[in-house]
Design a protein that fits this description.
- The chain is α+β, with helices and mostly antiparallel strands.
- Helices cover about 65% and strands about 10% of the residues.
- The chain contains 11 helices and 5 strands.
- The protein has a 5-stranded mixed sheet with strand order 1-2-3-5-4, with helices on one face.
- The radius of gyration is 38 Å and the shape is rod-shaped.
Length: about 400
């Protein structure tokens, strides 16, 4: 099988065609072959009990085989095949040959035409075939009775009804297959978008820290080499962490380890480590937590962490000399994370910058969970980001009370 989202190679397409073509040919040939054998053998058997009928001869055998031969074209020309088998049936019965399984090829052609979606043409040809059968029987045996007319009509209606029921089932199964394929494609697209957002957040955060620390190391290399050493150590740590996270993401994309968890591992449990890493780059960060901390769903936990991470990265890149405050508030309905800085912000009357993927990515994370995110300059200076992410407290954790 070709993995979802992958493009089949020429070898794979050739392999599919090599496997499917013999199967398709067998499905086309087998019904026609069996119908031919059954019609010929059954008609010779029926002829022994109908001495008054015209004896089977070479023309009869040709007519008995003509109908099954026409079935070979039933997929490409279903209506023409139905009309041809009808004419063969009329010719056989009109010539006075004994009754037998000769209508089999006509019945198969009728079912095939319905299954191929040619409903209107099938019903028209079936109506004409009914008139033709009645005419042939009239010429051969005289005016037919009500029982015979009703029997022929009922036989045709049963065939048409069976065809319609099978066709409806096929349509329903096809819709279900399309629905499953679309759902799988949506899941794959969402997974790719999630990985892209994580990749952006990881690279933006670590590369920003590396850039700041590298600038600090260059500035202090000659005057304060001991501080330059600390900056280089921070660069080493950040580069190692980004390589580990990139390796994990690429492992998921390559599916090299099926036992590896597909869900992200970053979460609010790593907030202290994140703050420590950011603080080593020269940004003073204070964390305040309110409410009762509790385990959050993996998607919510990861989104909250990434929003804080991206917000602190933006403070590093755009706020200039500043401090930052991170608030994490656990509420009965979810978790609220807010990051505010005291940087220079955006002057009055100037639109905030819209370049980049940071803020849109954070909004997408919040919206994907049914939450919301607000971001913009603060009235007293600086910039603020606030995200509300839903994660209701399970009933077994509330004990009948709502936390205050």
């Amino acid at each position: 099988m070709v993995p979802l989202g992958a493009t089949p190679t020429g070898f794979e397409l050739a392999s599919v065609s090599v496997v499917e073509r013999p199967v398709a040919r067998a499905r086309l040939l087998l019904p026609a072959l069996l119908a031919g054998l059954f019609q010929v053998a059954g008609s010779f058997g029926a002829a022994t009990r109908q001495p008054s009928a015209r004896p089977l001869d070479a023309l009869a055998v040709v007519l008995l085989l003509a109908g099954p031969a026409l079935l070979l074209a039933r997929r490409r020309f279903p209506i023409a095949t139905l009309a041809g088998t009808s004419a063969v049936l009329f010719g056989y019965l009109g010539a006075g040959y004994p009754f037998g399984p000769v209508p089999l090829s006509f019945a198969l052609a009728l079912l095939s035409a319905v299954l191929h979606g040619r409903r209107r043409g099938t019903w028209v040809v079936a109506g004409l075939a009914y008139l033709g059968l009645v005419g042939v029987l009239w010429l051969r045996f005289g005016p037919p009775g009500i029982a015979l007319l009703s029997g022929v009509a009922a036989w045709l209606m049963v065939l048409l009804t069976i065809g319609e029921l099978v066709r409806s089932r096929w349509d329903r199964l096809a819709r279900e297959r399309r629905s499953r394929a679309e759902a799988a494609e949506r899941r794959a697209t969402e997974e790719r978008l999630r990985i892209a957002r994580d990749l952006h957040d990881v690279l933006a955060h670590h590369v920003s820290l590396i850039n700041v620390q590298a600038g600090t190391a260059l500035h202090l290399l000659d005057e304060r080499p001991e501080l330059a050493r600390d900056a280089l150590a921070a660069i080493k740590t950040s580069s190692k962490e980004v390589l580990v996270e990139l390796r994990a993401m690429l492992g998921v994309l390559r599916r090299v380890d099926e036992q590896a968890p597909r869900s992200p591992t970053a979460g609010l449990a790593g907030l202290d480590e994140l703050v420590q890493r950011v603080s080593s780059g020269g940004l003073e960060v204070t964390v305040h937590t309110s409410g009762v901390p509790r385990p959050l769903p993996a998607a919510t936990d990861t989104a909250a962490f990434r929003i804080v991470q991206e917000s602190l990265t933006n403070v590093h890149r755009h706020a200039g000399p500043a401090t930052a405050t991170v608030r994490v508030d656990y509420t009965p309905d979810g978790v609220v994370v807010a990051v505010r800085d005291t940087g220079r912000g955006v002057p009055d009357g100037v639109e905030p910058p819209t370049e980049g993927n940071g803020l849109p990515g954070m909004r997408e994370r919040a919206a994907a969970l049914g939450g919301r995110l607000e971001a913009g300059p603060r009235a007293g200076g600086g910039f603020g980001v606030r995200a509300e992410l839903p994660a209701p407290v399970p009933a077994e954790h509330t004990s009948g009370r709502v936390p205050r």
